[in-house]
Design brief:
Number of strands: 8
Structural class: alpha/beta
Shape: elongated
Helix content: 25-40%
CATH superfamily: ABC-type transport auxiliary lipoprotein component
Radius of gyration: 25 Å
Number of domains: 1
Strand content: 25-35%
Number of helices: 3
Distance between the termini: 87 Å
CATH class: Alpha Beta
CATH topology: Rossmann fold
CATH architecture: 3-Layer(aba) Sandwich
Length: 210
């Protein structure tokens, strides 16, 4: 091997050690806890009334930048929007709520013909809207979970708005730690889902014309 080749080999070896050392001293990312939106551990709550023959597509609600992500949002004071450190949802908030509503319809059983906006299936009605709140918030020393949805029921083939209603659920919390907050989101999601399902079934049964 010529002196020049040996020199280049020596430099490459030194460069490799330097890169390896630099990589080893880079700070490692802090672990992140990923939470699903809890579901009430109870038997399916079958709704009272006839099984409906119309189909329903459940769509993700529209949300602003503060809620259209996987961070667990919190309002610690006033209008300040923050999030819990090292914790996040398994999916962005609009997807979590859509899936909770879909689960609510499935548990209720009165509307068996269901799909979501992830599929391209045609449906008689679509349930969507705007997500107005999906956070915990403090009022003095008290903390609560707030979920707010401006729901809209639209006709499937031309997207004409047929009915709309604002829903809001507030779930007080006794513990401000993240696991208790997540449990509170689950309770609030269950309560909101029951209200939306009852409203959508009543509207759909009145509006459906086969």
């Amino acid at each position: 091997m010529t002196p020049i080749c040996r020199a280049f080999g020596h430099l490459a070896l030194i460069g490799g050690f330097a890169l390896s050392s630099a990589c080893s001293i880079l700070p490692k990312g802090e672990p992140v806890d990923v939470y699903r939106l809890p579901v009430a551990q109870v038997a399916a709550n079958k709704g009272t009334g006839q099984v409906q023959h119309w189909s329903l597509r459940v769509a993700k609600p529209v949300a602003g930048d503060a809620l259209n992500n996987a961070r667990i949002a919190v309002l610690p004071e006033g209008n300040l929007i923050s999030s819990y450190k090292n914790s996040r949802w398994s999916d962005p908030a609009p997807i979590l709520l859509r899936n909770r509503l879909l689960d609510g319809f499935q548990r209720d059983g009165r509307v068996p013909l269901l799909s979501t906006d992830d599929s391209n299936l045609q449906a008689d009605f679509e349930l969507g809207g705007e997500l107005q709140a999906f956070q915990s918030q403090y009022q003095g020393n008290a903390v609560e979970v707030v979920i707010g949805l401006d729901a809209r029921l639209v006709r499937g083939y031309d997207q004409k708005i047929l009915a709309s209603k604002r829903f809001e659920v507030r779930q007080p919390l006794n513990d401000p730690k993240v696991p208790a907050v997540v449990a509170g989101f689950g309770q609030a999601g269950d309560a909101l889902s029951r209200q939306v399902v009852d409203w959508a079934v009543a509207q759909g049964s009145a509006l459906y014309k086969p």
